[in-house]
Input
Amino acid sequence: MAQKDVGNKVPIYKLKETKEVMDFYDEWGLDNKYDKDMVEWNYTGPKETAEVFNKHQKEKDINIYDAGCGTGLVGVELKKYGFTNFFGADLSQKLLDLVPNNLYKKLDKVDLNKPIKEKDDQYDALMCVGTFTFGHVKPPALDEFIRITKNKGLICFTINEGIYEEYGFDKKIKQLKNENKWKEIEFFKSDYIASKDVNAWLGLYEVTK
Ligand SMILES: C[S@@+](CC[C@H](N)C(=O)[O-])C[C@H]1O[C@@H](n2cnc3c(N)ncnc32)[C@H](O)[C@@H]1O
Output
């Protein structure tokens, strides 16, 4: 798969280390440039995932963990469907500082490649949008996502098509299915950043542990 991607000054696919990723996003947040670029590029990840999530999640008063929430674009989209209880986690404090006031109940600076400091079965559902991409969060995070999500809870995510196989997300998803940790509800190629010819797999899985 060609390393098609986008970024701020340098393309995202050049990022390797966690510190590089953090600095990259901290800088991208300056003058709200991240949000401005997402509008300009017609980044549809948050909108597409919120739509799919809403289709399968009828109860609105649930606690949703937003893994790699950035500036809160997923919360903004989910709120349009009536969801209100968001708990955000991200590596970039600068992006967390740009989340609209009172949109999220809690915002934590977290490295999702490490064990997440949350109890087992803490959340009713989990979203992870735009965060499985080059140099960002790796497949083992899915074990943690399942651990902190309640049984029968939904996990909705995107995976940049350029790393899906290269990083082993294909194998990890299959392994979790084979181990009956989750059940596939939706899985398809989404638009994501179609204006830049970058697409992503969009998955919605029900935890069955
Ligand atoms: C493309 S942005 C997506 C942000 C948001 N979910 C959205 O859709 O606008 C990717 C996010 O992943 C975060 N990120 C990258 N590596 C991370 C890590 N190891 N732990 C937590 N967050 C990380 C970045 O800080 C950034 O906010």
Observations:
- The chain has one domain: 7-111+119-207.
- Strands lie at 7-8, 10-11, 63-67, 85-90, 106-109, 123-132, 149-160, 182-193, 198-207.
- The mean pLDDT is 94.
- The radius of gyration is 16 Å.
